Amino acid sequence: MVYQPGNNNPFAIPSKHGEMPTFVVRASKPQLPPVDVILETAEVVSLPMRTRFRGIAVREAMIFRGLKGWGEFSPFLEYDDVESANWLAAGIEAAWQGPPPAVRDTVPVNATVPAVPASEVAEILARFPGATTAKVKVAEAGQTLHDDVERVAAVRELIPRVRIDANGAWDVPTALEAISAIGDVEYVEQPCASIKELAAVRRVVDVPIAADESIRRAEDPLLVARAEAADIAVLKVAPLGGMRKVLALNTALKMDVVISSALDTAVGMAASVATAAALPMLDHACGLGTGALLERDVAPSFVPRRGAVSLRLVTPDDDLPLAAPDRVAWWEARLRRCHAILMAR
Ligand SMILES: O=C(O)CCC(=O)c1ccccc1C(=O)O
Ligand SMILES: [Mg+2]
């Protein structure tokens, strides 16, 4: 924490020229609420999806209330505790610090198209009214390049600006082949898994390359920029440890950014939208319309209207779709382990 200047410090002594001294006090780490305080208000929810996404048919999440509102803790089930601890830091920040100051109150969003057959594209896009950009999942396991080409073509007929996300599934030659087969796109998100491969693809193709996993799952989120491996940074608030962490990264990266959800519930989405709303510059649609992919949410979802979502605080509904007792116990144990990791950081 930084206190300055010393104007309201009763112990400050003005210099002989009359200025008050500036001094800086740094806490060793941000204040963490005790884990039992978090657990007092915590609920574990189980949210069915309208369409399977990233292999997920039911989204589980823990939400809890702090002094400034609600926070979400929802790392994907397969993530380890060290990675998941970032998600907890983000939830605690939302609940005990609240959002940073906004510079806009709506955020343009892309339609998010899971790896569905081309025949289902229109029905998915109808959930994102007014969207002028669509993000299409490609390179799904068990599917072919032909499936991707057909799906993207079906999207393009309805929404001209398309970005694709391969989630790191291609090697370099496959990425080059796929990018040329799929044709004109706004950008290609995470075509390959490693930073080296991203850089190799980027050197050869004209389309911009976006990095997602190479930032949010990396030891050092700045490596992508140093390696000149991407044009655009896709930043997710929970995996990167919170709203202020993402705003700091945005400054450090000196790249165009897109804020995207991690399949957040409305509670996590409020923090993601608040982050996008606080960016000094925002030139691209964000991936914050995924509430439209949930059958049920913890509060009214951030569903896009006229291609944008609106900034707002979220209070969960009274009748939450609660998870079964064994799942609640699993999430409580995970919360305790991740909290211990944050205490030790
Ligand atoms: O960016 C979007 O349109 C939606 C968010 C999204 O795609 C996503 C959601 C959960 C986990 C991973 C991803 C991803 O971008 O890879
Ligand atoms: Mg992605």
Describe this structure in words.
Helices cover 33% and strands 17% of the residues. The protein is α/β, with parallel strands linked by helices. It folds into 3 domains: 1-30, no CATH class; 35-98 and 319-344, Enolase-like, domain 1; 106-310, Enolase-like C-terminal domain (TIM Barrel), CATH 3.20.20. The strands form 3 sheets. Strands 5-6-7-8-9-10-11 form a 7-stranded parallel sheet. A 3-stranded antiparallel sheet has the order 1-2-3, sandwiched between helices. The longest helix has 20 residues, at 325-344. The two termini are 16 Å apart. Bound molecules: 2-succinylbenzoate (OSB) and magnesium ion (MG). The site of magnesium ion has 6 residues, from loops.
List the keywords.
345 residues; alpha/beta; TIM Barrel; 3 domains; 7-stranded parallel sheet; 3-stranded antiparallel sheet; globular; binds 2-succinylbenzoate; binds magnesium ion; Mandelate_racemase_C; EC 4.2.1.113
